[in-house]
Backbone:
């Protein structure tokens, strides 16, 4: 059996960093969601938000746009988001779930959406792979 102590310690450091961001940003609900998902999904490398909440220009009717990067998945891209529990959040939310390889390819292609995700995403758990 592999010794995972270093992995667990690294994750604990990332969780502490997340808690510090959440405390600073006063984002209690988002913090609870991110922590719950991180605990429930060990395959998650990073969880973040983008769009109006990340830019801090949300208003009435704004939804929470989330992005997650996982190590790997056998599910098609369009189906992965349905595996994530979003109903406990105080606003409607959608999530895009990329595998690590998809994320790296997506970023390398450098389209407008990829650039927007890179520049405006607020990463609460982990960091995207480079």
Residues:
């Amino acid at each position: 059996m592999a010794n995972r102590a270093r992995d667990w310690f690294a994750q604990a450091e990332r969780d502490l960093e997340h808690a510090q961001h959440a405390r600073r940003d006063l984002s209690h609900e988002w913090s609870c969601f991110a922590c719950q998902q991180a605990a429930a999904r060990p395959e998650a490398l990073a969880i973040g938000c983008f769009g109006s909440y990340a830019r801090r220009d949300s208003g009435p009717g704004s939804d929470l746009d989330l992005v997650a990067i996982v190590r790997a998945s056998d599910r098609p891209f369009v189906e992965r988001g349905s595996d994530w529990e979003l109903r406990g959040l105080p606003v409607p939310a959608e999530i895009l779930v990329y595998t690590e390889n998809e994320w790296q390819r997506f970023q390398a292609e450098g389209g407008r959406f990829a650039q927007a995700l890179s520049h405006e995403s607020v990463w609460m758990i982990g960091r995207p792979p480079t």
About this structure: The chain has a mean pLDDT of 82.
